[in-house]
């Protein structure tokens, strides 16, 4: 066994956020590192596994229960200045995160240089955060450099700004402007992209942006993939069960779905399950009462992931009208549960959903989006057999979206890079 381990290539990974108990960036770090460790001798440098930079309670708890999982975890402790900026990020404005993260990445570079003196690494991989504005500094090491998955380079479409609150309007205008600035003018982004032996992007939109602005060719490898595959579908019953899950906020755009439901003629052959809480929930609940939709909407609130999956398992169609999402976990969970999805034709949904596995809503005008949502919902209500066929197609598509495929793609990149 020892000889087999010694033959594995040694890979140095920077994963700012990592935890076996959380999703989002933490899950991205954990899934890639844990799964790649089956094939490589992994050393991972990390900065958080909890609510803020420097919180590593979750990883300490994990390492106590699994002290020998085959990965070397190197905690890069934020220094006093990094912690100050992180406190300002949480207490004053999120704009300070960039400062804290950049300074922490300089600590990562220093740590990597020390590790490199004692280990013969085949390559170094900047894993997360996946935002393209934060490539870190590991490209400065004298090692083949891999960067990805890279995301967050796409703008919010202008048609959505009229439905945003003043704060979100200004925040997303600033985000769009800084996206274009970083793609065109950031020396760190350009140096990382050009120096990298391989860059892989989270979505085809991110790939296209890297080609257009940085003249760098990227492969698309999602930050999340399907883990569990369902064996059989649940036939659609007399009442079609729709499900929506996420934070009830402007970005997830549950209000657009409500506008579509309000266009439907009065009929009782549907039910909508809403999973999650958020700042506009009470407003939407009041709106449902006024529009007489409340009797067909079940508000589940914030529940554990196991309960989310149970509700989705009993549903028929997943609806995701998010106006800004890369590869949301809930969309991949819908694939795991064998559900066709209705989603806006942009970002990750554009790549994931096919005509055989769901409905993609063209992003032209708000009026057309609402109209198409209503049309797709009506189609599902009137064509149960087609919905069941889509469910079967989703089960077939699971294999293409499985983690095994993503890992194979990353391993192919590793092998190519380490032999160049």
Set out the fold topology.
Blueprint: H1 2-7, E1 10-15, H2 24-36, E2 41-46, H3 57-65, E3 72-75, H4 80-91, H5 97-118, E4 123-128, E5 145-150, H6 166-185, H7 187-195, E6 198-201, H8 204-214, E7 219-220, E8 240-245, H9 254-261, E9 270-275, H10 281-290, E10 297-301, H11 305-313, E11 317-320, H12 329-336, E12 341-344, H13 347-352, E13 358-361, H14 366-382, H15 384-398, H16 403-419
Parallel strand pairs: 1-2, 1-4, 2-3, 4-5, 5-6, 6-7, 8-9, 8-11, 9-10, 11-12, 12-13
Helix pairs in contact: 4-5, 9-14
EC number: 2.4.-.-
Keywords: Glycosyltransferase, Transferase
GO molecular function: glycosyltransferase activity
Question: How does this model look, in words?
Answer:
This is Glycosyltransferase family 4 protein. Keywords: Glycosyltransferase, Transferase. Its EC number is 2.4.-.-. Pfam families: Glyco_trans_1_4. By secondary structure, this protein is of the alpha/beta class. It has two domains: 2-225 and 402-419, Rossmann fold (3-Layer(aba) Sandwich), CATH 3.40.50; 240-398, Glycogen Phosphorylase B (Rossmann fold, 3-Layer(aba) Sandwich), CATH 3.40.50. Helix content is 46%, strand content 15%. Strands 3-2-1-4-5-6-7 form a seven-stranded parallel sheet, sandwiched between helices. Strands 10-9-8-11-12-13 form a six-stranded parallel sheet, sandwiched between helices. The longest helix has 22 residues, at 97-118. The chain is globular, with a radius of gyration of 22 Å.
Q: Which key terms come to mind for this protein?
A:
six-stranded parallel beta sheet, seven-stranded parallel beta sheet, Rossmann fold, globular, 2 domains, 13 strands, alpha/beta, 16 helices, disordered N terminus
């Amino acid at each position: 066994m020892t000889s087999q381990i010694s033959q594995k290539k040694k890979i140095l990974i920077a994963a700012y956020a990592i935890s076996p108990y959380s999703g989002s960036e933490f899950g991205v770090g954990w899934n890639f590192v844990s799964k790649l460790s089956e094939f490589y001798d992994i050393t991972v440098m990390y900065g958080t596994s909890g609510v803020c930079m420097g919180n590593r309670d979750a990883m300490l708890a994990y390492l106590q229960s699994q002290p020998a999982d085959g990965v070397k975890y190197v905690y890069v402790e934020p220094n006093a200045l990094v912690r100050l900026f992180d406190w300002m990020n949480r207490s004053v404005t999120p704009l300070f995160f960039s400062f804290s993260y950049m300074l922490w990445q300089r600590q990562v570079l220093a740590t990597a240089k020390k590790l490199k003196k004692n280990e013969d690494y085949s390559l170094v991989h900047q894993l997360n955060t996946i935002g393209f504005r934060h490539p870190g500094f590991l490209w400065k090491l004298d090692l083949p450099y891999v960067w990805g998955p890279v995301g967050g380079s796409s703008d919010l479409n202008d048609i959505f700004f009229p439905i945003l609150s003043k704060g979100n309007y200004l925040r997303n205008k600033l985000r769009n402007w800084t996206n274009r600035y970083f793609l065109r003018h950031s020396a760190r982004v350009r140096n990382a992209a050009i120096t990298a032996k391989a860059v892989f992007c989270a979505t085809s939109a991110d790939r296209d942006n890297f080609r257009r602005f940085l003249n760098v060719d990227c492969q698309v490898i999602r930050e999340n993939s399907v883990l569990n595959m369902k064996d059989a579908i649940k036939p659609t019953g007399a009442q079609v069960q729709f499900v929506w899950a996420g934070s009830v906020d402007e970005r997830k755009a549950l209000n657009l779905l409500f506008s579509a439901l309000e266009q439907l003629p009065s009929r009782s052959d549907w039910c909508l399950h809403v999973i999650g809480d958020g700042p506009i929930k009470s407003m939407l609940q009041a709106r449902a009462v006024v529009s007489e939709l409340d009797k067909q909407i079940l508000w589940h609130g914030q529940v554990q992931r196991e309960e989310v999956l149970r509700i989705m398992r009993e549903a028929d169609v997943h609806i995701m009208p998010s106006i800004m999402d890369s590869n949301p976990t809930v969309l991949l969970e819908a694939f795991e549960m064998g559900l066709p999805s209705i989603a806006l034709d942009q970002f990750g949904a554009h790549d994931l959903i096919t005509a055989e596995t769901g409905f993609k809503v063209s992003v032209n005008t708000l009026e057309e989006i609402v109209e198409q949502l209503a049309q797709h919902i009506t189609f599902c209500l009137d064509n149960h057999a087609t919905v069941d066929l889509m469910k079967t197609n989703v089960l077939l598509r699971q294999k293409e979206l499985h983690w095994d495929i993503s890992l194979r793609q990353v391993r192919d990149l590793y092998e190519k890079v380490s032999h160049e």
